[in-house]
## 1
Amino acid sequence: MKTTRPLFPSPAVPFTTPRLLLRPMRAEDAADLHILRTQYEVMKWTSTAKMDADLAFTASWMARFLPPNDATTFNFVVEELSNPGRVIGIAGSHIAEPPECGYMLRSDMWGKGYATEAVKAWLIEHWKLPRKEVDVDEQMIGHFDRHVDNGIYRELLRADIVEDNLASAKVLKKCGFVRAGSEQQDENGQKVTVVYLYLERPV
């Protein structure tokens, strides 16, 4: 089937919201990101459900978003404009095929509306990127009513969450994502229900 995919810039251009700065990741962000990735209440919702063992592990994880690998993702660290220089989270597309949106925010930053603010702003930048036509064998979980324009299926952006993660479900719903289906998965020896949400590219 024919659809479109974004062409990621390298380096990406930083952008701001009323309260936040979203910018490309830098190697010197390791200490702040290690704090984020060693908070159990944050990491329990990730696919590994594990905290980073040490700073070296965090640095290894970061490598997928640093040059030259930044050309294959569209991922940003998040700072407060009121407290520049301190990374409090990440937001963006961390998987290019199929395109997937995700975010993490330090637990002491929860309840401020930062996640919704960051994801909404990131989506605007993501949809503004130039596109290319591609042929893909897209495997969807569940059902999503999808538009076709001149034989080209409207591009979809995906987000996966654990069903119990009600806070993220609310954030993604506010950003326009729609639940399409779910399935049981085995994560670290435990059965969890993973929910698949999709957002169609706006016209």
## 2
Amino acid sequence: MMAGRRDRLMKNASNNNMSINPRSRIIIAIGIGILMGCIFAFLYPHGFFHTNSPLSTTDHFSNSQTSTLDCEPDERANILKADIMGLKEKNAELRKQVRELQEKLRLAEQGKDTAQKQFLALGAQPKAGPFGTVKSLRTNPTVAPDESVNPRLAKILQEVAVRKELIVVLANAYVREMLELQVSTIKKADIPNYLVVALDEEIAEYCKSNNVSVYMRDPDKGVDSIGRNGGNHAVSGLKFRILREFLQLGYSVLLSDVDIIFLQNPFDHLYRDSDVESMTDGHNNMTAYGYNDVFDELAMGWARYAHTMRIWVYNSGFFFLRPTIPSIELLDRVADRLAKQNLWDQAVFNEELFFPSHPEYEGLHASRRTMDFYSFMNSKVLFKTVRKDANLKKFKPVIIHINYHPDKLPRMKAVLEYYVDGKQDALDSFPDGSQ
């Protein structure tokens, strides 16, 4: 019986083994392995062989870090200082290079500009002649006329100008009486090329009704407000903006203030060899044409005497401009400064003409000529010198400018009475100055 039972069990086991395929056996083995691994990991978290090496490594790192932290501030400070010094030196070197490059660029541009100007003015390079025969260029070439600047004005100038030259006067209603007196002298002297720039409607109507050539600009808010309401100096400053178009159109302009009497045609007495010909505020040869003024500074001992060059200013109320680049640049410079600052136009006019180039400033390269101070006479010369000299009283000036005296209209009338009507005592009642 026992033998029969054992046979049955072995038979069943044999049947079970036959029923499990190889793939199932592999899965079972993997599962058993994972289970045993989890059990050992739980029972021996540090492994079968425990060591102190991780702890010792951590302690070593901690000690090393503490040591590094102890010396780090001083070392880092020194490193940063060295870096800063290096950067400063590098920055200084870069700044030096920038300055050198800027200077080279400035010199290159200046040289290019100068070369262009010389080429335009001189053309082919000349050779120097024998001693005593060399003369520098005084007369700059004129600009090419550009009628697109102001076609309406161009048409007027074609009718008024003589040989592309004309007198230009700015006037508003405040100076109408002086303008009327001036116009009468223009007609007596038979000067055809005379144009009034009317700054308001009243002057425009006066000119039209008296057969005087007139030009009224297109509306311009900045100019019109001054032109209609401005006083003598304010109106005088406008001319530097207005005259530019005349030069761009290729015309030479003889600018005149209204407080001027014309006794002869001024165009018969111009040289036309310079960019600017101007009357002077000087009253004798020294003040009009320049002189060496010695300044005495006793404290300097041996070098106590300092020589200075002086000349009395040009009068910005009567000057002749040829249509050249320097003349236009002069107008631009003066107009720009007057627009930005409250300055006297005559002072700015002279500063731009006479101040030389120096560091951070490039002077105006314009040729200039001082008019004969007896022919183009100011009122100081007339009332302080000429009227008291028997010989000078016989001389007939080209124009007389009542620029030194505020009582302009009565003195203008007296000048007419003396030089035109022949009234010998017409000038006698006036003081030398304005007292």
## 3
Amino acid sequence: MRYHQTIAGTTHEFDGLVELMAKATPRRSGDELAGCAAESDAERAAAAWQLADVPLSRFLDEPLVPYESDEVTRLIVDTHDRAAFAEIAHLTVGGFRDWLLEIAPRADAADRLSRIAPGLTPEMVAAASKIMRNQDLILVAAAARVTSAFRTTIGLPGRIATRLQPNHPTDDPRGIAAATLDGLLMGCGDAVIGINPASDSPRATADLLHMLDDIRQRFEIPMQSCVLSHVTTTVDLIEQGVPVDLVFQSIAGTEGANKGFGVTLDILRDADEAARSLRRGTVGDNVMYLETGQGSALSAGAHLGVGGKPVDQQTLESRAYAVARVLKPLLINTVVGFIGPEYLYDGKQIIRAGLEDHFCGKLLGLPMGVDVCYTNHAEADQDDMDTLLTLLGVAGAAFVIAVPGADDVMLGYQSLSFHDALYVREALHLRPAPEFESWLARLGMTDGDGRVLPVDPGESPLLPLTAGR
């Protein structure tokens, strides 16, 4: 179906939903690289105007990526809940935006949004986000409530959790232990202590998992650990009796991009089942940790949709959340600026993408977090990250990622520091996950209001963490 919109005497035409969605997307370098971005602000405005008039139901009739050749599309279509969709089935994209903004301030907003979530497809949510301002994305996301649990509870109102990321370029246990101590002393680690290993060696992964589990048990920390090896490596280690809490995997929004990561839906489902069978959680049984990022499908050359046209990267990112949704993860985050300026050029594009991803993930029913980050060759700096972190705190992000000094020396990119986590909790009156907060108080690391107290590391009850490593 062709779409057209006339502005100031000029008629803009769009050949199908794939092109209309791409042209309506706020400007970003990845879509320009793919050749699907609007060629002018006028064309972008015309596309957004026309997109607002598209019925939500059309996304059920016109897949952007072919059903026959893509298992993610089949998952989206085959699991769509028409009963949940019924409440909003009569709306257009623009009408849905208005409905969201009307619902968000209400006392029953969280229940209403939760009720319709199974009836939403990623394409519907992505379409709505394209015609929303940043404040709209924040307001609606803040109204949504999505929780998950393993040894801590993620996503509760008034709280923001942190992934403590103690990466080391050689997986040196002493370096990892020192970074872990640094983060724990600043109240970080309630989402997960998660290590990106320097290699995918099963032996190295097993050693790190044993080390983290030893730390957890020695200090009786209500936490979950994860070593971010490939899902198949982790499943093999489960079968060998290695102490695995969470299974990690990067995912994307097309079958081809997921194959580039070495996974299929069946592999992911089997991994989820294997980890759940261990029954290691104490307050819940969500066992998957998933990461996504705008541009991943394009970087894999797996971004083409119906008619061979490139699908915009934000819509493909939202489709990854359909994969995540079926797995009911404990954690999922977009690594928003990690892939580089080829996909998100500057601070403005990174901030916008982070808010879009968070909004779309929460609306689809996910405990959405964000790695607030950038690479050093992007036109961005730590002030941009401060802005995005603050906006995400207001929007009710489930968790963020923190590394020593905001500088990941293994992956070579800039993220948030442990101090940044202290900032956002203090500025916005947010607290850690309740189980972790109780542990901090029990060790005398926080005051009566939950604020982290200054501690001499030499006198900390956690000092033995680094001994003998």
